[in-house]
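Suppose a classmate hands you a notebook page containing two proteins, each written out with its sequence and a corresponding row of structure tokens. How would you begin to make sense of it? This section walks through that situation. The first entry is reproduced here exactly as it would appear on such a page.
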Amino acid sequence: MTSTYSCQRMTTRWPLVIFYNIIDVSAYNAYVLWTEKHPAWNVGRLHKRRLFLEELGKALVQPEMMRRKTLPRTAAAKSAVERLRKDAEQPSTSGITDTDTGDKKEPDVNSVLQVTTRQAYV
């Protein structure tokens, strides 16, 4: 059941495999408990588990983002963090319908951070 949305990656280190499995099972258990406690959450939406995992990830990262708000960084990294913070401050997806984003494709967060890291070492 956890294979649809999984954090598991190919690795040869068995402790990491166990850790990934613990994360997957914990996230699934949290989803089951949440849907039992809030049965009206995202009624009629497909991919409820994906939406839950997105909100869970944002909720877990939010305190760290607030802590790092005052740390010094390059201009590119600062703009990436501000964009992520703005996305996190938007209302929950529970009442929003999917909309067409058009042909604009924003850069992936990982690629922005990689570019920022490369610029820091140049």
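The notebook's second entry, a different protein, reads as follows.
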Amino acid sequence: MSEHAQPLTASRLCLIPRLIPAPQALLKPCRPIGLPSKNATIVGVYSGAMVTELNYFANLLHPLSDLVPLTVHVINISHKEDKKKGTSTSTSTSTSRSRSRSSSRRKPSRLFNGELGQNNNASTGGGGGDIVPRNVSPLSVLTIGSAFLTIGLLVWSILIRDGVAVVAILTISAASSIVGLASLWEPKLTKRALSSRVPPGDLVLRTRKGAFLVIHCSEEIARELYIGTEECSYTIKSGVFPALVGVGTLLLMIAVVLMGNCEWVMQLAIGVSYILLNGLYWCAALLPARWHWNLGRYEITGEDPRKLGNYTEALWEAIRAASKDEYGRKRGDRYSTDWVQTSSAAPKTPAWNNWLKEAEQHVNDGTEDWNAVEAWQKLQKEEEAEAGLSPMGIIRRTTEKAIGLPLNENV
């Protein structure tokens, strides 16, 4: 149940009185202030902003587990409502033509859950303005099913005139509603407060295994999903929360005592019901977490990932991809590779610094056949030669020259 605690209490269905397995998982002394994140380095290509964790909803859209080492992925994330309103970045005829050409090249990303834009509308009625739980999801089905199961147990206990079982079922059902109310919340994403001009929101995500994900998006989406924080906005204030948890705990203990004094038939029925619910919730925990959330407001398109032979090639490919916009065109007159050093994607050595300068120059010149590995090897050899090191690391220069003292030719 601990895996389901947050998505379960994000829906108002958690207020329905019912039996829930392991209700103590919701009886916590404090509530989380945010959603769980994953370790990854994310940097703004043009903004320079950097974070070292991937937010929860962004990981649902493109899971880190899907990123293969030494691969480069390029995706475009946009708001569906923006497209419905006809929003565009340019009104020129040439832009419209290039957009139609690029749309034929780009397709919904199969690797990164491109089906979200199709399936969500069927189950929720379309993308809304916020991220909310799906109306039809594994947890919502289990919630409704457990409510009907609770009603069936209650009717059965009434028919066999087991008053203790009636009170026990009502008590534990009330406890689940109270605990659900205490933990009821909704996601709060970071929004832009001002409408000032900002740089493009393009980002580059890098994993420790050398996989790169180039994300073309607006500054609004960059703040919502990546740079900003994902907070939990609770319906009940912090001062009332401990009182509700205390009442829920008391009712739960009373219900446990009452269930131990029911007729053996009802004890067996309640026990089997809890075993069944435990198994179903355990199966639900094995399903993808994105099935519980309506992410239909976002549309993802992308290209097939490219597998590279080594990290240098992957970095060069990521630099090239980050220099273009979502339509595959070069963005701006001059492109900078500062984001590489900002995110520590390359070591800060003279050879790597010179390599980045060459890479930046080749990107701006539009060079397609530059051999990044050979260029780095050449620069590395030059650095070793300047340091006076042979391939085996032996100093070849005189002691005076090595330590920077002037040579005395007369000695």
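A careful reader of the second entry would note: Residues 87-106, 110-128, 392-411 have pLDDT under 50 and may be disordered.
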